[in-house]
Amino acid sequence: MQLERMQRSQARVRQGPDHRDGEQVTFLDVKQHFGLGHVRVGRWVSRSESLIAANMVFDALADLALVLGLPPIALGLREQLNLAFGHGGQQGVMAHYSPCERTLALAKHAGAGALAHEFWHAFDHYICGLAMDVGRGVNGRFASELWLKDVPLLCHPLNDRLDALFRCVLLSPDGEQPSDYMYRAITLDKSVGRLYFSHPSELMARAFEAAIETHAVFEYVDMQSGEISPKWLINPYLVTGTENSASVHGITSRQWGAMPVGAFPDNRHRQAIMQQIQAYFGLLGKALEKRQRGST
């Protein structure tokens, strides 16, 4: 029943292309379309619940691929990213990424809005061994974490863009000091007495999802006139709750996580971050498409 309500809310609020042409998909379709390693669905997820969830996950991942300029199959990170729905979760946690298992896990009734955040964690972990000369024994490390510790990126045009993204999020415009966003996160950590908000992987994940929620657009085609115009892309299953007002582009949605004020970049910073996100992933998408054409 709760997933049905979530589906109705998603259908009412979501604003984006119809990636499925109105068709029902399964988690097998999700696995194949996005190039995932394996997908596990919990034993307490009924057949009808699995179908509802598969549609929402499919739309969210397809929206993410569209925004990033990536072929959908690239989101599976060369089949190194696994997905679990209602399976292997953690008590009190709505969604998480496990580096050891390379699995993005979504809770059955409470994973909505966390997908973009957890995908960044998966990507941050995956890209570490490709973008940095780190050798063995780094299974649980993240590129953003090592970058902030001055581990150099390998010389490559893509890594230049990745470096620019890290700088945009974590450092001041002149590159000499931490960003205001990081300073606020340090203050939050002091208030709770532990390292969380200012951890580089969490800073990057929150910046990634916030930029997408606030600045993602898609090309809307008017079926009657054929006119194409930009529209805000809104998908509460992909990301929601990164703005303090919980209202994005005039549409209010339930927050998936109770984040305090100051936990996300401000709007001006989000815009700059989104530009760097699209510069990096756009170049990556073109490289992947070129490689695919060369192999056919």
Content of β-strand:
5-15%
Order of strands across the biggest sheet? 1-2-4-3
Summarize the amount of helix as a percent range.
40-55%
Describe the global form.
Answer: globular
The stretches of 5 or more residues where confidence is low (pLDDT under 50) are: 245-256
What's the number of helices? 9
The ordered H/E elements are: HHEHEEEHHHHHEEEEH
* CA(first)-CA(last) distance: 46 Å
Mean pLDDT: 90
Largest pleated sheet: 4 strands, mixed
Supply Rg: 19 Å
Number of strands: 8
Q: Which structural class fits the helix and strand makeup?
A: alpha/beta
Task: Describe the protein in words.
The chain contains nine helices and eight strands. By secondary structure, it is an alpha/beta fold. Strands 1-2-4-3 form a four-stranded mixed beta sheet, with helices on one face. It has a two-stranded antiparallel ribbon with strand order 5-6. Strand 7 (247-248) and strand 8 (251-252) form a beta hairpin. Mean pLDDT is 90; it is low at 245-256.
Secondary-structure topology with pairs:
Layout: H1 2-13, H2 27-33, E1 39-41, H3 47-68, E2 82-85, E3 95-98, E4 103-106, H4 115-131, H5 143-148, H6 157-170, H7 180-192, H8 200-215, E5 217-221, E6 228-232, E7 247-248, E8 251-252, H9 267-294
Parallel strand pairs: 1-2, 2-4
Antiparallel strand pairs: 3-4, 5-6, 7-8
Helix pairs in contact: 1-3, 4-8, 6-9, 8-9
